[in-house]
Request: fold
Amino acid sequence: MIDYFLELDIVVQVTIATLFTWGMTALGAAVVFTSKNMNQKFLDGMLGFAGGVMIAASFWSLLAPALEMAEDGPLPGWIPAAIGFLLGGLFLWGVDKVIPHLHPPDPMESAEGINPEKKKRSTLLVFAITLHNIPEGLAVGVAFGAVMAGFDSASLASAVALTIGIGIQNFPEGVAVSMPLRRDGMSRKKSFMYGQFSGMVEPISAIIGVLAVSFIQPLLPYALSFAAGAMIFVVAEEVIPGSQEEGNKDLASLALMIGFTVMMILDVALG
Reply:
């Protein structure tokens, strides 16, 4: 009975946490009500900052705990972490090849996936950010799941720090969807609705993550490193190139370092 209430409490905490990250996506999307355009340097700086946050979160909140947890298993600790990390990247790579999507602010000719030409530009943009929000929600879910499992290397403060970091980097993602839609002539209201909708997947994937590891605890090191690999794939495939394609490479790089530092401080100080 006590275990049941503990699991229920963690699920509630995960739901609240990912509602916060979803809310940050909506806050970014709401920028469309104040302007039709945003300074490109500011947007590139935010994307760079988001990349730094995700890289730091991938290590301190996911990979490092995964390595510690795996040390008590039958295999060397680096094996589950390496397998999970690579599987996370391969999963996102495979999804990118299947689901039609378009990375903002690319032209329709750059759309990826199966038969993207049959979808509207607005749908493709939302799909792109939604796909990239899956590992973020999963990361929050497995981080809270590790706390529920009682691992010494996992702490509630660290899971909260991860949530804050992902929430921070969700802001520019909301902007990145709503602004291109507004520039394409869509109304402010619809642009906002599409932008915030991209964050809806985070609470869903987080609950799936926490429930999965609660039932299959030996897989937790794999799940943590899987989420880390998926997040790093997103950073390398989309966030960093997107922050530099308009020529603001130095600004984006410095912002990435600042984001990394902020997330590192959050995780170490709170965890």
Observations:
- DSSP finds nine helices and no strands in the chain.
- The chain has a mean pLDDT of 82.
- The radius of gyration is 18 Å.
- Residues 35 and 179 are 8 Å apart (CA to CA).
